[in-house]
What we know:
The complex is a heterodimer. Helix content of chain A is 61%, strand content 13%.
Amino acid sequence: MHPVLARKGRLGLYLLAWIPPAGILYAVLSAAASLGRLETAAVVAPLALAAAFLSLSTWYLCRVFPLRSPRVASLLAAHLAAALVSGALWVFLARAISAAYAPLFAGLEERLAPQRPLVFAIGVLVSLLAAAMHYVLLAMEASRDAEAREMAVRITARDAELRALKAQVNPHFLFNSLHSISALAGSDPARARQMCVLLSDFLRSTLGLGEKASIPLAEELSLVRSYLAVESVRFSGKLTVQEEIEPDCEACPVPPLVLQPLVENAVRHGIANLLEGGLIKLEARRSARTLQLTVENTFDPEAPPRRSTGRGLRNVQDRLRAHYGNEARLEAGARGDCYRAQMLLPVGGEEP
Amino acid sequence: MKVILVDDEELSRQVLREFLGGHEEIEVAAECSNGFEAVKAVAEHKPDLLLLDIQMPKLDGFEVLELIEEPLAVIFVTAYDTYALRAFEVHAVDYLLKPFSKERFDAALERARRRLGEKLPPAAELAAAARPPSQHLERIVVKDGARVQVIPCDKLDYAEAQDDYVSLHTGGKTHLKQQTISSLESYLDPARFIRIHRSYLVNLERVARIEPYTKDSRMAVLSDGTRLPVSRTGYARLQALLEGRG
């Protein structure tokens, strides 16, 4: 179906767009023919309306003969033929209209007759113009389609990448944890065993997350807690965790592993660089429409710069965009010796 | 053999201590949990061997090495293999990837013992080799007597070559560092710091204007009024950079 007819409201706009050409037609006819103003208007109005609908048909012709088609000769021939038919139709319509006005305007048909070549020429011209406009329209549509397709491809690629990412825990975290276990195995076998259990708890909770689009916040929190339990053994007492979780947040669905990278950053870039250790604060609040998750940590503004700063944050940002489009927000920044990352996620309405 | 252990994690030092326990001939001169302590302890005890973690609070392992003037044997102890491997290929005695076994540890120690008789490169050279090449320095560490100064690169106005040293000028203060100006230049972001003269490296943001001086040379006037000579090649570099930006 023609795009102008496909949606309500568009037809009205399209007809409005025909007012200036109708004005030109009025000016040309009134200059050329010996007609009164009212007579000219009476002829032009139905003629323009008919032409508006007639021009729509060019769209089908343009679709059959796309500009890039190799059949240039038949494309030109088709449009030329259409233009000639259109010219003939215009002449026929002008005659029919002026004949219909016979009781109102005496001799209108006779007075308009000498202008037939002009009317014919206008009909040809309008048809060719309509073809040109339709080609522009088709080109715009094609580029929009291409854009949408490219976007879809990008989203699929990102999804695949995320799945791979989610399935994998930062290997350095694993190596450091195993090293802690190795240390404790000599000095404190009971704690070494406990560390093995904590590490297994964390690893088990990350298994299979790749397949899930979302998990309840409570599940993400318990994953984060077991991560922090492992890290606090490694940092032997340097890590303090404080939680302020409103109970009605716990059931809210969130994309899996959306909080953990922020907490990992807080440990790697915050606590790990502090001689005396530091504090990580987890906060969850919700209003009717948004869930607000905050990770705050103390850090040393003069710490040596670490590699891969910002990668975890960017990852989370990409995930939020993939999941919620523009409806979620992540802000992060430092104030004094406190670093804070805050997410605002939409809740209530079902996610896409 | 005198050894210093440097690692910010207590558990990690504990492993090192435990593995060293069987070696009678080794004396642990100090244990350090951050870079500042390490630099101080090395100056004080003059150890033969450093067991060095790389990611630490205050100063990282490379910065520690940069501040050590005497040659000494270094074994990197880290969970990050990329740095360690690079350093090892060039100069480091060995590297231990966490977690490691007692056998692996003993082998590293044995290598260090054998290398002790040989001539070791200065520690700073090791740091230079180990640092990822594409990464520009964000800050420069300097030792002022016993104190360690950390100078963020954007605070550096210009550097001046003085034989084997560079003097770093920051907001009216001067720090001396044992490093050649070419070596410093290679670590700084070339889009921000330009060698305008054989002996001068300048922070582009501080340059207020360039004035003609003699027929062949020019003067760079910094925003604080300091005047530095600009050689012909230095001027060409400056122009190329400004054109690249514009």
